[in-house]
């Protein structure tokens, strides 16, 4: 997990590790079902998150607050 920038002090100092673990578990669930994962986009009024293929065995995730 590479963090390029963050701005405000958050209450949960483990939030990046938690997000990483959630994504890893989701990918594991997809592989157990023999489903291929391509990309994902999640948006609400507070943030937008994008996950997409970066290389053949790597994904990239971008999270933006106040999109």
TrEMBL record:
This is Putative ras-related gtp-binding protein a.
